[in-house]
Structure formats: C-alpha cells, structure tokens
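Sequence in, structure out. Go.
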Amino acid sequence: MQSACARDPGYLNALIDLIPAIVLVVDNDVRILDYNEAGGALVGLDSSESLQRRAGDVLHCLHSTDAPGGCGQGLACRTCIVRTSVNEAFAGSTTVRRRANLELVRDGAVTKVYVLLRATAFEHGGSRRVLLILEDIGELAEFQRITTICMSCRNVRIDGDRWGQVEAYFKRYWDMDFSHGLCPQCATAELDRLDAGVDTQHE
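Output:
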C-alpha cells in the first residue's frame, strides 16, 4: 500500500508545517534554504527576503552585526552554538542535540530565547544539507531560573506563599510522577542506623 506522502507530496509539507518547533534547512554556511511555518513566523519575512541568507542575519542574532560580513564573520561566531552544531552535523552522521541560549534583537532590545537544538545532516539532489530544529524550552529555562527551595526542609515554593514537596510541584507544573528510592549515601546511612538499632536491642 502506498503511503500518503508518496500519493500526495504536499502532504509531507503540511505535516512539517504542523510541527510547533522551528524547522530550518541550511547549508554549510548556515544559509537558510527552506523552513516550516513556525520558522517563517520567527523569521517574520517572506521567502524572497530570508532564503539564501545566513540564519544569524535573518533571525537578528545579537552578534550578526559584529563584523561587516554579518553572521559567521564576527569573533563570537567562532563559538556560536548554532554554527558549531551545524558544522558537527556536516562532519558526522549522528544527530547533534544540545540546549542553546540565543540572543536575538527584537524591537531594539535583546531577547534571550532558550531552545533545544537538533541538527541532522542529509543528502538531497546531490547536495548535503542540515535539518536544523529549534524547540522553544523557555518555560523549562524559567523553571530552572526561579524555583525556590527551602534550605532547611527542602520544600519548594509552588506559588505565592504556598510551599510543598518537590513531588507536588513537579506533578502540578510538569505532570510528572515519582517513585522513591535511596541514593548510595543515604542507603549506607540508613543501614548503619538500622544496625545500630539492632545492636542496641541485643545488648
């Protein structure tokens, strides 16, 4: 049976446009060759103004104006996590996956955008390309930045003046369940405590 993608090439494009993450196809100089709908929303330009331009220039990276040549030419570009990830993907066959903090200029102000970045190389039409996916993890980054934990009882602030156990916090905001165990250090301490109790009973 023929797949829906084989029967209708536009079907795959429609699926990719449904992905809420930013999907870009780039070359080895991080020039944008194609993008999905979420990528277009971030870019904010039509294809004639964005395609064949470097990602840092199109996305208004803070460092894209550091050098006259734009994205890829400044000193900060040497350690750019997007460019480095794309280069690593081109050099190997595995998917590069890491968190990144992008500093983008929006309305004259610098905005930090926290993303989970994935870069995977592929061949198409005799040319090597990289599929670059940027997934917004700003909520997770905010959680990591502002969570307050009591230094005495280890409860966390859930909201306002309400405090609760870490498990309750994760359940409420991340819908996570927990199982319980003992780390090696606590297991040893617990066994020592139990042994001390047994010895006391035998005296």
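Check: The two ends are 78 Å apart (CA to CA). The chain has a mean pLDDT of 81.
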